[in-house]
């Protein structure tokens, strides 16, 4: 029975996305998707008794009012930066949920859930920091051109190795050091997000945003795995799929290779400029 | 264990369904679609709510409420922005 209800909520979401085939129906589709999310929200409220009702209500109201007010007040030019910022907010939520669930469960969780939790932590944190960089670039708060640190590739490799190392260590470490390991994991992943997105700039920004969209969905999905909620997994996976397709489509539209965007070759500064002048 | 397989199955099926759905969307609508899926990706709100279904310590309360705030910010803001974007579409459409 519960499965059937979950399934129908997901069906509503699918109908919503289905409307996006035609521009005239897209607005209705957006509302349909919002409605399905609302259904999922009330379903969770109904199924699991909330203990700290007041805290939850206040946070909900605060987030909703802030989100709506900001979304209404930004100008059309600021929208891309705002969308990127919202991705970041989603990332924060994902890694916080994973963190709390992991510290609560510790090694009592089965291995699969622990690994998903650590993945949720990692992906959520890198989505957060990457989106913040992207948002700042789009809002013209920092320079929009790709920035490269000395030995950027090496730094990224070391960072990835550290993330994998700490992640693996957290599965085997004694329970009392777990919380700090998780914090270290968040920090490392956030740093990776910065390294990753600061190198991308200019015309490649849409690709970056859509890539971060995919990672945000993936983080939500991992959150669902660690918490054990099918709705969360399904919604997250749908977003991850759509994000990765959009990334691919945008790359092909601009005649760019995704790997060239993510791993650009080190170019000597000034060279393209001289060519253009000559 | 069966629970685990079920979850993995849910993930796979949703991924495939998402793939099939998005392939049909015209490129004109890719930007609003991205903005909408951005809003959907904040379903972590459900996870944040579920955190409060068990007794919480003080730290967990803070972290959980921060998670709820940022997730609702993403959900509400995401859908509102998409709605605005699509509203713009409608006004522009006939005049062009």
From TrEMBL, chain B:
It catalyses: NAD(+) + NADPH + H(+)(in) = NADH + NADP(+) + H(+)(out). GO terms for cellular component: plasma membrane. One of its GO terms (biological process) is NADPH regeneration. One of its GO terms (molecular function) is NADP binding. It is found in: Cell inner membrane. Keywords: Cell inner membrane, Cell membrane, Membrane, NAD, NADP, Translocase, Transmembrane, Transmembrane helix. Residues 9-90 form the NAD(P) transhydrogenase alpha subunit C-terminal domain. Its EC number is 7.1.1.1. The chain crosses the membrane at residues 6-25, 37-56, 62-82. It is an enzyme of class 7 (translocase). It is a multi-pass membrane protein. Pfam families: PNTB_4TM. The transhydrogenation between NADH and NADP is coupled to respiration and ATP hydrolysis and functions as a proton pump across the membrane. This is proton-translocating NAD(P)(+) transhydrogenase. It comes from Desulfosarcina alkanivorans.
